[in-house]
Amino acid sequence: MTQKRDFDTAALNWDEEPRRVKLAGEIATAIQENVPLSKEWDALDFGCGTGLVTLQLAPDLRSMTGIDSSTGMLERLGAKIQQSGFQNVRTELCDLGKGELPTGRYHLITSAMTLHHIKEIVPLLQSLKTLLLPGGWIALADLESEGGRFHEDPTGVFHNGFSREELSDMLEETGFSEITISTATEVVKGESSFPVLLATAQSN
Asked: 88: which residues sit within 8 A by CB, 6+ positions away?
């Protein structure tokens, strides 16, 4: 059984990895291109970390709430919110993996590179669905199945990516419709390239 990664410590240098920043930017762009974002929407970014995706999407939305189970990550995001002057972004400490739920209902829920850190995906999707307004969107980005080569340190990793079929089946099982799976971007490590999938769907 894998242990939980210490994201509080990781938060200290999280944004200093250029590849990570680039990946987050490309995932946010893919969401912008595949979801009809609206200034009338309230959104939730699950597993927001230091807000690399959160803050890129925020200008397209009425409000953006970043939730994470790491206090350290949220402290970094909170500092960036203050420095940048965002008025429509807030943070909330919440561990969905333990059944905790944030406050509010949302038109959109996003997540970037968080699913592979969650042991049981379907219960998570069920929790997220309860937070969506009717017709609300979900946009989840994570690695395509990669056999365990992506992470040098597998601590806190429960899934070596997901196949398109897995993502589609889990969303369908949870009751989502209009499911689309596309390639958001890819991560290049040495001579290896790792596709990152974006799954979008709507709540009934």
From this structure: 58, 61, 62, 63, 64
Q: 65 forms bridges with which residues in the sheet?
A: 44, 90
Asked whether residue 46 is domain-assigned, the answer is yes
| CATH code (residue 89) | 3.40.50.150
- Distance of alpha carbon 33 from alpha carbon 36, whole angstroms: 8
List strand residue ranges (DSSP E) for the chain, in order. 42-46, 63-68, 89-93, 106-112, 132-143, 177-189, 192-202
Give residues with Cβ within 8 angstroms of 131, minimum separation 6: 44, 101, 102, 104, 105, 106, 109
What confidence tens digit (pLDDT) does each residue in 93-147 have? 998 878 888 989 999 999 999 999 999 999 999 999 999 999 999 999 999 999 8
pTM above 0.90, yes or no: yes
Q: Which residue segment(s) compose the domain that 31 sits in?
A: 7-202
Contacts of 147 (CB under 8 A, 6+ apart): 160
Q: How many folded domains does the chain comprise?
A: 1
Residue 1 in domain: no
Q: Is the dihedral of CA 92, 88, 21, 164 positive or negative?
A: positive
